[in-house]
Amino acid sequence: MRTPLKFPMYAAIAGAAALAGLTSSSIAQDKPFEGQTLVVGVWGGDIERLLRENVVGPLEEETGANVELLLGGTGDRVAKIYAERNNPTMDVAFLNIYEAPQALRDGVVEAPDPELPMYQAIWDGMNNGCYAMSLVGLGIAYSKALVDSPPEWADMWNPEYKGKIALAQYPGSEGDGLLGIAARLEGTDETNADVAFSKLAELKPIAMTYTNLDEIFTLMEAGEVAMAPMISGYVLAGLKEYPGIGFSFPTDPGPVLIRDMLCLVKDSPQPELAKMFAEKALGIQNQTAYAQELFFGPTNKNVALPEAVSADVVDKPEDVDALVALDWPFVISQRSEWTDRWNQEILAD
Amino acid sequence: MSQARTVFLLLPAFLLVGGVFLLPFLLLLVTGFWTQRPDSWIVEPTFTFENYARLFTDPYFVTAFARTIWLSVLATLACLLLGFPVARWIASGRPGKSLMALLMLMPLVAGALLQTLGLVNLLSLLGVVNGALKSVGLIDSSIRFLGTQLGVLIGLVQAFLPLMVLPLATVLAKLPVAVEEAAMSLGASRFSVWRRIILPLSMPGIIAGSVLVFCASLTSFVTPQVLGQGRVPTFATIAYQQAALVLDWPFASALAVALLVILGAALGLVSLLKHKVLARGVPA
Q: What was the ipTM of the complex prediction?
C-alpha cells in the first residue's frame, strides 16, 4: 500500500526543493549583496544617527548587505587607510577637507568620478580629493554679554577683548581657517605664513584652547570668553541651548569654507556597495536631514530647504561664493611646521 | 609534567602576549626610526635618526619633557603628603574608615574624563573654588587655575591620590600598634615615633605608591589636555597632537618610545632605591 505513495512523495520533495531553490535564487537576485559587509569609518553621535536612519537602514534593506560603522575621529581613519593601503578593509571613510586631497595624492582613496550622477549633483569645484559631503563655514561664536552685535573678524583684535579669545586645538580646520583670515586682514593670504602668525600672535594671551563645546560654551555664557572662531553646523545646533551665546557669519572677509568629505577607499573589498552607500549619503534625503538637524549645508544642488533652515545653513550659490576658500593642499603641506609655530608663537606665554 | 607539555600549554599565552603586546611594541620601536615622505603621509621604512634628533634638540620638546617629569614629581610628593594621614586613618580602624576608603576608591571607578570635567567647573574663573574663596574674603579677583601648571597639578593629585593611599594603607594596617606604644612608653616623642618607627616601616608602601602615582602622572593625557587648555603641553598631549592631528607617526612613535625609556629608567631607579632602603632595614 505504501508503494503508490512513493512517486507523489518524491515529487513533493523535489517540488519543494525546486521551489526553495527558486525562492532562494530570486532572493539572491533581489538582494545581491546578502551576507556581505560594507565597512564605513565615520564620526559618532548625531552624524552616525542620521547616517543609520537615512543611509545604512535603506541600504541594508535593499541589498541585504550588512553595514558596519567604525566610529572615531579622522586621525584614526587616516591611520587605518594608510596602514592598510595594500590590503584595505575599510570601504568608505569620512574625512576632513584638509585630509582628502592629501589622501588622493597618496593614492589611498579613489579619485571622484566626474561621469557619475552623484558627482554631477554636487556644486562645481567642490569634489577636491573625495566627494564633498557637507558645507559649513568658520564663523565666530560670541558671548552676548560682552559683544553687543554679531562681530566681524577684525573685532577679535579689538583691545577690549584682549585675553578673552579662545581657540580650538591645533592642528584643525578652525586654526587653519583663522590663519587664513589673519593673513587676509593684512592684505595677503595663508601662503604668507609669517604675516598670518604675527597677526594672530597679537591676540595673545589666548584665553584657552578648548577641547569640547560644553566647556567653552559654559565659559562663554559666564562671560569669561568673549569670542571663539567656530565651525557652523552642530555648533549652531548646540547653541540653541545657550541663549547667551550668538554665532556670527562675518562678511569682511566672509566665513571660511570648510567641507566634510566622503572618500571611497582605493581597492576596497566592496567597491559597488561603497558607491551605493555614497549615492545615498550624498542624496537629497540624507543631506536634507543633515541640514535640518545639524545645520550642515548640503553639497547636493538639488536639495531645497525650508527658509527657516536655510538661514543658518550654507546652501545657496551666493552663500558659497561669499565664503573664503583656503589653499588646502598648501595648508596641509605646512602642517607639521605650523603646529610647531602655533605651539610656540600662539599658545606659549 | 614534561617540559614539552609545559611549553605546549603555555603556547596560547605566549602567542597572545607576543601578538597583541610585543609585536605592536616592536613596530612602535622601529617606526620611530622610519621616514615620512616629504609632502605625504606615507611612512617609508628608510632608516633615520631625525625623529630622535628633533626630540632632543628642539627646546620646545625638551622643555615639555622636563615639565612633564617635574609635574609628576610634584604630584607624587603632594599625593604622599595628603595621602599619608588618610592612609593612616583607614589603617587605624577609626570610625568612618570604611567611608573614607570608599571615597578614596571613587576616582578610580569614575573615569578620568568625568572627574576632569568636574574639576573644570570647580576651578574655572567663576567656578566653585574661586566663588568660595571670594565669599570668605580670602581673594578679591579670581585665581586662574585652568591653563596653568597649578591646575594640572591639582587634577593629577585628585586623580591619582588613591594610587598612593591604597598601598600605604595596606602597609600601615600591618604595623603593630604595640611597637608605637612600646616606643612611647620608653619616652619617645610623637615626632620620633613617627620619624624612627612609622616612616621607616611604611617605606615599602611609600615606594609602591610613589611609583604608581609618578608613572600615572607621567603618562596622563586627559588631565593635562583638558585642565591645561593647550598651555601646559606634556608628553602625552604632544604625542596625541603628533599622532592624531599632525599625522606624523614616526615622530609620534619616537615620542612614545622616549616616554617608555623614561618610565623604565624611573622604575629602575626606584627598584635600586628600594633594595637599598629595605637592605638597611629598620633602624634600631
A: 0.81
